[in-house]
Write a structure and sequence with these properties.
Elements: H1 2-42, E1 47-56, H2 66-82, H3 88-91, H4 97-114, H5 127-139, H6 148-152, E2 166-174, E3 177-181, E4 184-186, H7 193-205, E5 209-213, E6 220-222, E7 236-248, E8 259-263, H8 265-269, H9 274-280
Parallel strand pairs: 1-7
Antiparallel strand pairs: 1-2, 1-4, 2-3, 2-8, 5-7, 6-7
């Protein structure tokens, strides 16, 4: 009786060990299959592209804010109050027209900094000063800070928005949808990224402009989201390069591009899709 009980317990223990070993082997095989699938997914080479962020830098100084104007005026008053008198006798012949003009300009600067002299009203001037100031206004008429392209909403003109940074965007047709994006091209096998960027810019925009790619290193990377309908498709990766336009104008390749525009950062946000905007917004200048 005792031997029968011992044999049955040994048999049950052997079966339990066998079941545990089979379960361990099955789970290990499942983990190996998962690792192999992950490795095969990782080793799949993505499609590489290079994008060019072509920038037109500001061409005029920015209009100062009210605070900046007050600060500069305050500093000017301090400087004029502390500086030594200008030795105009050394530079101008006595009684010459240039001396008279300098004196008029100097009095104008004094009034602007400290107001009218004691005992004289703010707008009180003699006839000679009025005539001289009118002559100088005709000679020193400043150019307007708003270009004709801003009035006509000409987005192709490089002179628009002179105080702001402008970026080149191209309008294309992809998958039956009209989109706006930066100039972009594919990377051939064995080709360096910055060489592909230079080639892609010339293919997309023509060779009618002088450009300078700032560095051989990209300034950003973008992973376009894969469409839901394309299961298992290869991933696309876009490396962005910063470039400046020095002269010329874009002549886009009409086989790839429908239209182009020079836009500020805020204007770009209204034209590109949300995923693209989230990938590029931190690369662009806020002003």
């Amino acid at each position: 009786m005792f031997s029968r009980t011992v044999l049955s317990s040994c048999k049950r223990a052997h079966q339990a060990c066998l079941f545990r070993r089979l379960a361990t082997e099955a789970s290990a095989a499942h983990e190996v299959a998962q690792v192999d699938a992950a490795l095969s997914k990782k080793t799949a080479r993505p499609n590489l592209h290079t994008g060019i962020i072509l920038n037109r830098s500001p061409i005029i100084t920015r209009t100062p804010t009210a605070f900046e104007k007050a600060y500069y005026a305050y500093q000017t008053r301090i400087h004029r109050a502390l500086h030594n008198p200008f030795p105009y006798d050394f530079y101008f012949k006595q009684g010459s027209p240039l001396e008279s003009r300098f004196n008029i300009e100097e009095r104008r600067r004094e009034r602007k900094a400290f107001g009218a002299p004691f005992g004289m009203q703010t707008g009180e001037t003699n006839e000679a000063e009025k005539l001289a100031e009118a002559t100088m206004r005709d000679e020193e008429e400043a150019m307007p800070r708003v270009h004709e392209a801003d009035i006509n909403l000409d987005f192709k003109n490089l002179n628009r928005r002179g105080q702001r940074n402008l970026y080149l965007l191209l309008q294309k047709q992809e998958n039956g949808t009209t989109i706006w994006k930066f100039p972009q091209g594919s990377v051939d096998r064995g080709e360096l990224l910055h060489h592909a960027a230079t080639r892609g810019l010339e293919v997309e925009c023509g060779n009618n402009m002088d450009t300078w790619i700032v560095s051989r290193n990209p300034i950003g990377v973008f992973h376009p989201p894969l469409p839901a309908s394309t299961g298992g498709a290869e991933e696309d990766v876009v490396f962005f390069y910063k470039a400046h336009i020095m002269a010329g104008q874009v002549r886009p390749n009409r086989t790839h591009t429908q239209d182009f525009a020079w836009l500020t950062k805020g204007e770009i946000k209204t034209r590109v899709d949300e995923d693209y905007w989230l990938g590029i917004k931190d690369i662009l200048s806020d002003f």
